[in-house]
Design goal:
The chain is an alpha/beta fold and 213 residues long. The protein has two domains: 15-114, Rossmann fold; 151-212. The protein has helices at 23-34, 48-55, 84-97, 134-147, 151-167, 173-184, 188-193, 197-208, and strands at 15-19, 38-42, 60-62, 76-79, 100-103, 116-120, 123-127. The strands form two sheets. The protein has a five-stranded parallel β-sheet, with helices on both faces. It is elongated. The relative contact order is 0.09.
Length: 213
């Protein structure tokens, strides 16, 4: 099998379909809510949380079995029925329509796999075993939690703000690259980890002084 091509998707406002209403579907829905997707759930029955989210208007739950029209205008499909024959039929329809589909624990009926994710604000590390061992992916993610603490997320946010300032300057491309490298390799992350925030602005101004020259 060819290796998977890693990609990050913008799901905000995108219509995502979840077929199934059990615990697995509930976990999929919960994650999609975090990414502000527009969610439709199709299932005769659903877990209490799915029902609550539906009552709150956070998703659209159609009580019934899957119908082909459920795929209208859909961006991604997650199948969580546990029935391989249902998975196969829905997957075939998705592929006819060019819709990416993920059937939980059913690799032949998957166009993509959901990685184990470590998130620190805008910093996101995704670990995949290409569906071969989700448990190993989860173990590696937990090991990385100590290696990549929460301060990395703060540092990424700071770097994002500084990047906008640098891009709006009159510096040459080479000078911008040098400045980016100086910032990334500075001790600001260590200062964040040590709680020395009073020194961080001073350090940033030292690095960014060339913008005033």
């Amino acid at each position: 099998m060819a290796h998977l091509y890693p990609i990050y998707l913008q799901l905000a406002g995108k219509k995502c379909l979840v077929v199934g209403g059990g615990k697995v579907a509930e976990r999929k829905v919960e994650t999609l809510l975090e990414y502000e997707a527009s969610i439709r759930v199709v299932s005769p029955e659903a877990e209490p949380n799915i029902q609550t989210w539906s009552d709150q208007g956070l998703l659209d739950w159609r009580r019934g079995v899957f119908q082909q029209q459920d795929l209208d205008d859909v961006f991604l499909v997650f199948i969580a029925t546990g029935d391989e024959s249902i998975n196969k039929g829905i997957t075939a329809l998705c592929r006819e329509k060019g819709i990416l589909v993920n059937a939980v624990d059913d690799p032949p009926n998957c166009d993509f796999y959901v990685p184990s994710i470590l998130r620190r604000n805008s910093l996101c590390v995704a670990i995949s075993t290409e569906g071969k061992s989700p448990l190993l992916a989860g173990k590696l993610r937990r090991e990385l939690e100590d290696t990549i603490p929460y301060e990395y997320g703060e540092w990424v946010d700071i770097l994002g703000d500084l990047r906008d300032r640098i891009k709006g300057s009159n510096l040459s491309i080479e000078a911008r690259k040098t400045l980016f490298e100086e910032l990334v390799n500075s001790d600001i992350l260590e200062l964040l980890q040590a709680g020395r925030k009073e020194i961080i602005e001073e350090r940033i101004e030292q690095c960014m002084s060339c913008l005033r020259e």
